[in-house]
Write a structure and sequence with these properties.
The complex is a heterodimer.
Chain A (H helix, E strand, L loop, with lengths): L9 H9 L4 H21 L2 E7 L14 E8 L8 E4 L7 H14 L5 E7 L5 H13 L4 E4 L6
Parallel strand pairs in A: 2-4, 4-5
Antiparallel strand pairs in A: 2-3
Helix pairs in contact in A: 3-4
Chain B lengths: L19 H25 L6 E2 L10 E10 L6 E7 L2 E2 L2 H13 L4 E6 L9 H9 L4 E8 L5
Parallel strand pairs in B: 1-6, 2-5, 5-6
Antiparallel strand pairs in B: 2-3, 3-4
Classes of the chains: A alpha/beta, B alpha/beta.
């Protein structure tokens, strides 16, 4: 007596013995993985420093207990690096500015400090970002870019 | 006695080629080359961003990205800058028009992606144009460095 074959076709035979074909699923997962990896690389190692653009008007707009710090950036003479000047202090290097601001936020809470960066057009853009980053690192959230004082 | 011939290998049940994995692999390769090509063109824009250890990562709802690319003169002297929006160079007037349109549309955020080798003079016109258009802030795009918070 012959046994009726259950093997209607090769696909049914394959599924019966080996289960569903996983290759398409692996490929789709790989596509999704590559998509997310590439998206991360594209969006990736960048972020932002938010700078306010204050407009000085008659109202002022700054609370009484807020300390406004104006940081003037000017190009150094000769081979000197960018010089920073705060209030009536002497011009200082960027490293000294970091120490100055560090001491300032120990006296005044950074939430009460408004930093206004007034860069000379000849100053490297990188130094402007460095000063902004310094303020952000010290916890000063309100940082703005203003025009330098007219000479 | 009649023997029934068992057809264990009928023509209709022969091994057929499953093309689904082939299509998936081709799709993977196409997407890979599209993305790599896009990344290469972005890198080729040649904007060396300033570095920072702090920053904010989330994108704003409505942003307008302004690229300030640096290019060396043919004489190898000082760098010159070009202001680009959507990879197209823009004049100062066009810049102000774009920012005014952004302000009229309810505001938004201008992201400045400038080369760190440039003087601030290359970026100042953008900042001033934003201020005149009434935009309250700009974002300076920086590159994360190790040890970032």
């Amino acid at each position: 007596m012959t046994k009726l074959s259950h093997r209607r076709n090769a696909q049914a035979s394959y599924d019966e013995h080996h289960g569903p074909n996983m290759t398409p699923m692996v490929d789709v997962v790989m596509v999704i993985l590559i998509f997310f990896m590439a998206s991360t690389a594209l969006v990736g190692p960048e972020w932002f420093l938010r700078s306010a653009l204050p407009v000085v008007g008659p109202g002022g707009g700054v609370q009484d207990d807020t300390r406004r710090v104006r940081i003037e950036l000017a190009p150094g003479t000769g081979d000197q690096a960018t010089q920073a000047r705060v209030a009536d202090a002497e011009p200082m290097t960027m490293d000294r500015l970091a120490d100055y601001m560090d001491a300032l936020v120990k006296v005044t809470p950074p939430t009460k400090v408004v930093a206004l960066i007034a860069p000379d057009p000849r100053v490297p853009y990188d130094d402007v970002v460095r000063v902004h980053e310094l303020c952000a690192r010290l916890g000063i959230q309100r940082v703005g870019i203003v025009e330098p004082a007219a000479k | 006695m009649r023997l029934r011939t068992l057809h264990t290998h009928s023509r209709s049940s022969g091994a057929s080629l499953n093309v689904t994995p082939l299509i998936d692999v081709v799709m993977v390769l196409i997407i890979f080359y599209l993305l790599v090509g896009r990344m290469a063109s972005d890198r080729a824009a040649g904007v060396a961003l300033p570095e920072s250890r702090v920053g904010i990562g989330e994108q704003a709802a409505r942003t307008l990205e302004v690229v300030v690319a640096a290019s060396a003169d043919s004489s190898g002297g000082a760098l010159s800058s070009t202001i680009l929006i959507d990879n197209l160079p823009r004049t100062q007037a066009q810049l102000e028009e774009e920012f005014a349109a952004l302000s009229r549309a309810g505001g938004g955020t201008v992201q400045i992606r400038a080369d760190r080798r440039l003087p601030y003079a290359a970026v100042a016109p953008i900042v001033e144009a934003c201020r005149r258009a009434g935009l309250p802030s700009v974002r300076l795009v920086t590159q994360r460095v190790e040890g970032s918070q």
